[in-house]
Write a structure and sequence with these properties.
Layout: H1 11-21, E1 30-32, E2 40-45, E3 49-54, H2 57-60, H3 62-74, E4 84-88, E5 98-102, E6 107-108, H4 118-132, H5 157-167, H6 173-184, E7 193-195, E8 204-207, E9 210-214, E10 221-223, H7 231-234, H8 238-248, H9 252-272, H10 279-292
Antiparallel strand pairs: 1-2, 2-3, 3-5, 4-5, 6-8, 7-10, 8-9
Helix pairs in contact: 4-8, 5-9, 6-9, 9-10
Amino acid sequence: MSDSDRINIETNTVHDLIKEQFPQWADLEIKPVEKGGWDNRTFHLGDKMLVRLPSAERYASKVAIEQSWLPIINENISVQIPEPIVMGVPSKAYPWNWSIYNWIEGVTSDHLDYNHHPEFANDCARFLKELQSIPTKNAPNSGEHNFFRGSSPIVYNDEVEDALENLGEILNNLKIREIWERAVSSEWHKEDVWVHGDFAETNILVDKNKLKAVIDFGGASIGDPSCDLTLAWTYFNEQNREIFRYCVNMDQKTWWRAQGWCLWKSLKILDKIDDKNSKEALSRISIINSVTYDKI
């Protein structure tokens, strides 16, 4: 996605918002969170809270979803998730709704090699099963607001075709197209379930080889859970991928669509990288190959 419509949010802006709308916290230190995210900019507010502000209008509608639904999701999940404290409103300093949450201490799983811990694969699967068991009445449907997570990956067919056309010399396009067609020709026929929408390494906090918390529910909706399974190839080795797959216990066609979601994201990212021999590019090629040659 382009940076062109994302706004720069300075610490001074957050100070102004807190002073104006929540003066009881105006004396607390505010500082940016390291790797504060793409969809949102995140700041520490003292030691126990964080401020989260959408970086573009296309992310702003997620604020109300998290405010409304995180308390309900929290009642049904055994690991920590963000707890909304209060929602801020637009002002002269900032144009959209924003949130204050509790701060959850932890390290994101992309910083550590939890790939080799089978219990972590089981923890991730258990989280998804708990999430999928939560009642869905009046819950938000998948759509443009969460980039169609919870729908079929077919919505990104054109992007996949464009990427394959550009990347034909370094990938097995014939095999990838076969897997992609298999993914988009299948459908979710069961009742809609809750999906996280971005269940990725950077949104999973860990402690002592165990899943501690899951963050960033801005893309949460109900629908097809296949989009939440891509961790199988982006993170786990073959052994732990099988543990994850067994514990999640989804039908084969759902795993086919999960392959489609994983291919779309990795192809799109790889296509935008100029140096195809860079570390980031080689990582994406490795993920694509893991999907391509995984015999489901």
